[in-house]
Task: structure prediction
Amino acid sequence: MFCENEGGEKKYEVIRAVSKFFAENFTENLTTTKLAYERNKIIESITHNKDPMKDIKDKSFSAALKLYPTLKDHIDKIDNDKERFITALRIALAGNTLEFGARDHKPDLSKLEDEIFDVINGSLSIDDSDKIYNIVKNSKRILYVTDNAAEVIMDKILIEDISRYATVYISPLSRPVQDDACIDDIKKAGLDNNYNIIPRGDSIGVWFEKTTKEFQRIYDNVDFVIAKGMGCYETLIDYPERTRGRIGLLMKVKCLPVSLNINAPIGSNVIKIL
Result:
């Protein structure tokens, strides 16, 4: 996926370099997201391709954009304040299916609408939606940490709803990394004009040591944080002193280690306060 357009020898060079790094640095204290960060740097230094997943991101973004009017129409028909918020929460959660780097998860763009409405109408393995609604409606400032590029279209539904209660800060990555959302994706989604955009760096999830000082300042001063995806889960649980009760996690469980850690089946959906 990262080297599919490279020649054979270049691919072997990448494999040798990544394998060497893993062999020399792999310990129980090095998380998968930190390994991915170093792996991505190695691959980029060899291939000189700063956006290797651009094609699949563009395809998934187009599929999400086509679906946005349907989702917007669905949410606008809901009059009840709480029901509207929780539906928007589930739409944003459903967008987390648009990830192309997890071994045990293969999204099908042709079935995207069906999958989103399955999440809207289905059950969750962990569901703290009511608690998050009560927190958000009483907040003044909310930080929204994005995950995958195309799912920011579904995030847009929730961000627009949150903005009825609070000022929203949106935090994508500072540049393209894997299939994660960066500043350009926020602009493509039309979110750059009405919200505060706070790029957080070039590391997946929230690895505080790699985040910008501005991100850390905003994080420490908002009332609540909405965080998307497994990368956020895997990194934020390493900082219990900075997360306790402050994070609303929206995530589709896509791999066995995360499934075992959070006690939810692979393929299930989670809305959880960390």
Q: What stands out?
A: The chain is about 50% helix and 10% strand. The first strand starts at residue 126 and ends at 127.
